[in-house]
Every structure is written in structure tokens, then in C-alpha cells.
Amino acid sequence: MKKVLITGATGMVGKGVLLECLDHEAISEVLVINRSSVNIKHPKLKEILLSNFMDLEAIQDALTNLDACFFCMGVSVVGLNEEKYTQITYGITKKFVDVLHKLNPELVFNYVSGTGTDSSEKGRSMWARVKGKTENYVLNKGFRDAYAFRPGGIIPERGIKSKTGWYNAFYAITRPLFPLMKKSKNITTTTKIGLAMINSLLFPLENKHLENKDINQLADKP
Questions:
Q1: Alpha-carbon distance 148 to 157, whole Å?
Q2: How many Å apart are CA 81 and CA 103, to the nearest integer?
Q3: How far apart are CA 102 and CA 7, in angstroms?
Q4: pLDDT 10s digit of each residue in the chain, 222 long?
Q5: Distance between CA 65 and CA 163 in Å, rounded?
Q6: What value does the CA radius of gyration of the chain take, rounded to a whole number of Å?
Q7: 15: which of 7, 133, 195, 219 lies 20 to 30 Å off by Cα?
Q8: What's the rounded Cα separation, in Å, for the pair 175 and 199?
């Protein structure tokens, strides 16, 4: 039975991961850290509200004995310069990585990145370089295991909605096509991302960069 930490559980991907963890028999406890409540009551669930994610030391007593961190927190690059985007994307993730590695070096750390991320950190796309830098820090920290999840097209399930308004409008228009879209190996769902996160604890992989087809394959493991 595993105890997991989830960040970004109020977002579309994080909410999907949370729901699957609450339902899965392999997960005994779920800790979520958010700025605002997920508004879910469940015997497995414990929630900590933290306004400043750089102040993790203030709650470090609650961060021990973890088996995994499913880091689903993220921010859109729209309207942000490289300095600000790096501060949020790389800086906050690095803080979680450093604190959790100190307290739980044997945990599995899964970082939600995105398709097109630049592992070389030298490409022309600013967001891809920053995401690549963040992935590299996570994967090289020295946890028992770590993965960079790089989802592309994601279909929300179980009533989940995106925080981005135009995403929801797009999903509303394309909803009749969802059954067909789900047959593509290049499309994943919030459910499959959640199951793949859980299965990464049970079925370790050599490949540490998981695109949609890899996520779907991992999710479907029995």
C-alpha cells in the first residue's frame, strides 16, 4: 500500500490523477498540497493549503514516509517572460524536489511536463527549454525512480474540466469525437494519466520520458 503526494490537484491533469489514486486499491493515503481546496471528502485524502510553495519547510513534518510524488502543478507560458516562467516552473519544482529528496530519497517522483519539451535546454522555444531544465533536474536528483510525463492531446474524463476557458470550449465542440479520438495511441485521457502514475510505482520502466503512447501502455498494465 502506497502513500502519495499530489500537487496541482485542482487542475485538469492533477484532478484526474487524484481521482484514480482515491479509487485504486494500491494507494492507501493521498496527500495534496494546494493554494485552494479540492473540495473532496474521502477517507484516504489529506489536504494541506499552502499559499507559498517555496515555504515547504513549514510543513515538512507532513512530508515524510511518502512512496511517490505526482507533480502535476503547472502554469501557462502565455504572458510570462523567461525569468518569471522559470521562477514558477523550475523554481517551485526544484524546491519540492530538494525537500522531498532530503526526507524521502527512496520515493518515485513523476513530473508532468509536455510533449515537445527540450531536454537539451538549448532550443529556440523558451517554454520547452525551461521544461527541459526542470525535467533534467528531477531525473538526475537521485530518487529511487523518476519519470517525465509528456502528455500531448488529453481528453478529460469523470466530469473534469480545465482551468483554461478556451480548452473547455474546445472540449465541448469535440466531445462527439471523443470515442474515435480515444482509439489513437497519440491521444491520452486524464484517467490513463492517473493510472500510469500509479503503475509507475508497480511496473518500473527503463524509459524515463513518457509520451502519450507510453502513458497509455503503462496505464493498461494489469
A1: 22
A2: 33
A3: 18
A4: 899 999 999 999 999 999 999 999 999 999 999 999 999 999 999 999 999 999 999 999 999 999 999 999 998 898 899 999 999 999 999 999 999 999 999 999 999 999 999 999 999 999 999 999 999 999 999 999 999 999 998 999 987 877 666 566 666 666 766 776 677 778 999 999 999 999 999 999 999 999 999 999 999 998
A5: 31
A6: 16
A7: 133
A8: 28
Which CATH number goes with the domain that contains 28?
A: 3.40.50.720
Q: Which domain holds residue 46?
A: 2-219
Q: What angle do CA 109, 115, 116 make, to 5 degrees?
A: 115
Give the other-Cβ count within 10 Å of 133's Cβ. 20
For residue 38 the three cell numbers come to 479540492
- What is the Cα–Cα distance from 158 to 160, expressed in whole angstroms? 6
Altogether, the residues listed in the chain come to a count of 222
CB 70 within 8 A of CB 199: no
Domain count, the chain: 1
Residue 211 near residue 115, CB atoms below 8 Å: yes
Q: In this structure, which amino acid lies at residue 82?
A: E
